[in-house]
Amino acid sequence: MNTRLIILTLLTFTLKGCSQQPSKTMDNTKNQTQTDTSHWRKLTPEEAYVIVNKGTERPGTGKLLYNNVQGIYTCRRCGTPLFTSHDKFQSECGWPSFDDAIAGAVLQIPDADGERTEIECARCHAHLGHVFTGEHMTSKNTRYCVNSVSMDFIPADSVKAK
Ligand SMILES: [Zn+2]
């Protein structure tokens, strides 16, 4: 009688133990990667028109168009370095032009109509402008055509001073 009770008790515990194993629940919310926007600059309406809505500033008007100072061009929204003055050249197209970008900083995305290739900040996906190839303007045969309002400029002198 006692033995049967013990067996029954053990069996009950065993079954209970099985049923109480934590069930694995799929919690996908924790795995979603969210872009950290806390360090993004607040944009003026003019900046948002270009950076968010993929607009284009009027040619010949950009504040960085004729900037010849040595330094680094950064993303206006997130501050990521995008281009250096070393790669800037005067294309006379009306917008700041570079024949190269800082490695990995700029994404190239073909437009839906396949005619042009959009360029974005690789970090925050701010619209920068477009990239063109085959124009033979420089030895690299590439022109990153960038809106001034999409960028900030950090003179090399100010970096050295820090
Ligand atoms: Zn950015």
Overall description:
- The protein is of the alpha+beta class.
- The chain contains three helices and nine strands, in the order ααβββββββββα.
- The relative contact order is 0.18.
- The strands form two sheets. A six-stranded antiparallel beta sheet has the order 3-4-8-7-6-5, with no helix packed on it.
- The longest helix is centred in the first third of the chain and has 18 residues, at 2-19.
- The chain has helices at residues 2-19, 45-51, 156-161, and strands spanning 71-75, 81-84, 88-89, 97-98, 106-110, 117-121, 127-133, 142-146, 151-155.
- The protein has one domain (45-161): Metal Binding Protein, Guanine Nucleotide Exchange Factor, Chain A, CATH 2.170.150.
- 19% of the residues lie in helices and 25% in strands.
- Zinc ion binds at residues 75, 77-78, 80, 121, 123-124, 126.
Helix run count: 3
Q: Assign the structural class, choosing from mainly alpha, mainly beta, alpha/beta, alpha+beta, or little secondary structure.
A: alpha+beta
* The CATH architecture: Beta Complex
The small molecules bound here are:
zinc ion
Oligomer: single chain
Assign the CATH topology: Metal Binding Protein, Guanine Nucleotide Exchange Factor, Chain A
